[in-house]
Amino acid sequence: MSEPVSPAAVNPDAQTSGAADPVIAGRQLHLRAALLLLLMVALVAGAGVYVMYARGAFEVTQRLVLVTDDSEGVVVGSDLTFAGFPIGRVGRIELSPEGNARLLVDVASKDAHWLRTTSIFTLERSIVGGTRLRAFSGVLTDPPLPDGASRTLLVGDATAELPRLITTAKELIANLKTLTAADSSLDMSLANINSLTEKFKGRSGALGALLGDEKNAEKLLLALDRANSLLAKVDTLAANADRQVFGPQGVMKDAHATVIELNALLADARASLKKVDAVLIEAQAVGANAKAGTADLGALRAEIDSSLRKVDHLVNEINRKWPFARDTELRLP
Amino acid sequence: MTGTLLNSLKRLNRQALAGFAHAWQTIALAAIILSLAISPASYRADNRVAIERQLVTGTPQNVLWFTVLCALISLVLIRIVVVTAVSYGLSRYALEMVVRVLVLELIPLTAAVFVALRCTLPDGVELAELRARGDLAELTRQGIDPVRREALPRVVAGMFLVWLLASVSCIISLLLSYFTLYGFTPWAFPGYTRVVGQVFSPAVSLILLLKTLFFSIAVSLIPMASALYDNVSAPLHARSKAARELASMVRLFSVILLIEIVSLVGNYY
After folding, report:
1. Burial B54-74 (b: 16+ CB within 10 A, else e)
2. CA distance, residue A74 to nearest chain B CA (Å)
3. Please, what sign has the CA dihedral across residues A41, B252, B229, B10?
4. pLDDT for residue A18
């Protein structure tokens, strides 16, 4: 059409576009125009049908209601995925009377068997990218999720942690700032360490730094020298003691003889004790005999008592029958 | 000083009134032509032949060249978007971005500009020449409506061409996106379809259709309106034929820009 197409422009005699065209005329023109129109209608209609198919217009679905307190980031058309595969899409978002967001999800019937009564649903918000709805089914042998089922969404929000993280980071930075300030404890400690190391490099080294000044360090060194000489003396003393205790004329030899004598005495004592033991056994036998004798004495005493009663009875009898018997009868006046 | 300012204001007022008058004339012509387009009387023998001729002439060449150019540009853009998205670790968003950038925004705009430059602006010049020569007046004297006979076929052809080019190029771009992202395999088609479905929500689809419709109307009507109603005595237009054509082009591109801005606002706000 960049070229003049009107016959009027080409040929001034042919006034209008409706005039006959020597190249394209009649039925051929009509056919070509019809084909072009058909092509365009087919393209537009095909694109429309494809978009409808892509939006799930021809899909058989079942309804799933997901309830959450905040549906931010979820839009109509968002996918519900299972193991990374989209199995449903959000068809509608509404507010429930309780103030919760209700996401009405259309799950394709052919994929609905992945959702079970024990399935859980999560809403994940990442820092980069959109919000994701995901389904997890732990036990695939559980009963399938019924049509119109309502479930609560578990929300995992990466950005929700950000404010807390930033606050913590701020605190950390403030602490670091305090720690590294010019008059901070760390700075003072470092200065002290510096002065300490300077003292270490001095004439009396670490000892001088530990004891405060060089005089004390010298005293300590003197004390150490004296302790060394004392130790040498102690060493000599120990050698002498060793000689006196363990030498040929030492105490240990006498002690050894004494121990041997003690052993002999102990053997004698053991023999004496055995004899004492035998004496004790005999004494026990004597005791046993005395015990038996004591038992016989009881019987003898009983017999003596019996004989005495009889003698007493006899004496009483004689007294009664005897003419010198006293009148013991009391007579009343 | 005050007199100069007053004169400037008067001139500005005249120009504004002329602009409003031209806009009103264009709207009136649009109403006339659209009512003629839906009138069965416009498709009687003579007019139908004129419309068919406008539809057929040059359309295959334009479709062919535009499709080739659009495919090349789309391929380059798709590659840029995909490589950039992969380098940032956002490859899962590459397809959505490609579809949004190419199909929703660039291709309808490019198709409208292409049709304007290749067809409707030259058609407008042609109509202006017919008017200048007195051919339209002659048609009126013969009892033939010049708008129905000369303007309507060009407007219908322009609208048709915008729709055809936009449809063909969008489909080619969608196919190129698929093959560039996934290669020559059919197994990614369900996932691809799902992403396309997510992009083309009802609102976005409606905005795309309305945008293409208004592009086609603007591209077809404004050059015709300029040709039919431009006043040759206007200061700028009286200078030369090229100045008039340029003014018509600027007017057309301003309207295209306005439509694009409105569609962007509708899509992303």
Report:
1. bbbbbbeebbeebbeebbebb
2. 12
3. positive
4. 43
Confidence of residue A326 (pLDDT cuts 50, 70, 90): low
Where b means 16+ CB within 10 Å and e means fewer, A192-209 reads: eeeeeeebeeeebeebbb
Size of interface A-B (CB pairs under 8 A): 128
Candidate from B49, B164, B196 with C-beta closest to A54 = B196
Q: Decide: B178 and B63 in contact? Cβ < 8 Å.
A: no
What pLDDT does A19 receive? 44
Look at residue B230 and give its three-state secondary structure. Answer: coil
- pTM score > 0.90 for this model? no
For residue A118, CA distances in Å to A90, A123, A142 come to: 21, 17, 7
Q: Is the pLDDT of residue B166 over 60?
A: yes
Contacts of B133 in chain A (CB under 8 A): 12
Cβ pair B81, B94 in contact under 8 A: yes
Nearest CB partner across the interface for A33, out of B46, B52, B135: B52
**Do residue A18 and residue B191 have CB atoms under 8 angstroms apart?**
no
Q: What is the pLDDT of residue A24?
A: 56
Q: Is the ipTM of this complex over 0.90?
A: no
List, for residues A24-52, the tens digit of each pLDDT value. 567 788 888 999 999 999 999 999 999 99
Facing A15 at nearest CB: one of B119, B135, B201: B135
Q: Closest CB to B50: pick one of A2, A4, A18.
A: A18
Residues of chain B contacting residue A74, judged by C-beta atoms under 8 Å apart: none
Q: Are B177 and B99 in contact (CB under 8 A)?
A: yes
Rounded Cα distance between B80 and B202, Å, is: 28
Closest by CA to B180, choosing from B82, B69, B66, is: B82
Q: Percentage of residues in chain B with pLDDT exceeding 90? A: 39
Residue A8 near chain B (CB below 8 Å): yes
pLDDT tier for residue A2 given thresholds of 50, 70 and 90: very low
